Predict the 3D structure of the following.
Amino acid sequence: MEHIVDTVLQFEGERVYAYRVLRAIKNRFGSTNEIGVFEMAETGLREVPNPSEVFLSERHSEASGTAVAAAIEGTRPILVEVQALTAHSGYGTPQRSATGIEYRRLQMILAVIEKRLGLNLSQHDVFVNIAGGLRLDDPAIDVAIAAAIVSSFRDIPIRPDTLLIGEIGLTGEVRTVSSLDVRLSEAVKLGFTNIVIPSGNAKRLVRLKGAHIHPVARIVQMLVHVFAKE
């Protein structure tokens, strides 16, 4: 049936959340890179014109273990809150839980944090969640995930005006990402002025008024720019 039809649409969302994503996984006459975000209200579904504002509306920026990432869904930039919690494990094997991201991606990021940042997470349970019920495959949120985990482990909040962009490699490098300009425009529009980006993207960077942009080549350099003073 899927082979015969012109378009296949998939309606995604967690049962306990009000938000839904409409995604085209096949479109014979157009792009499959566009999505629509909707909210299930009392009167039915309604479009969410600015998903970033909605997904960040309940963020507690003064708490440790929370960071903001700029993801791309289709051609649309969406700012999301990444939450992490680390706690001493009460079992022989620590728990690892990933909601909204791929489990193997979390395992890789934890291994890089242990090896390249020297943090011992082997006796800690680690839980990571993308707030709002979104599921993201964009590797550009890696640095935000790592920052949220370190923030929870050290119990130090990240500066509330901070946004993190970048993919993490196995050697601890921060790799370049696509569509940086639209990610930055969305961030500045929502008041984020302390922004960490990959150093490889800095060559083609357009300066944004009021924003302090920090290019980093490795995740250890990221730590200098994101944490609020104790």
User: Anything to note?
Assistant: Residues 103-117 form the longest helix (15 residues). The first strand starts at residue 7 and ends at 12.
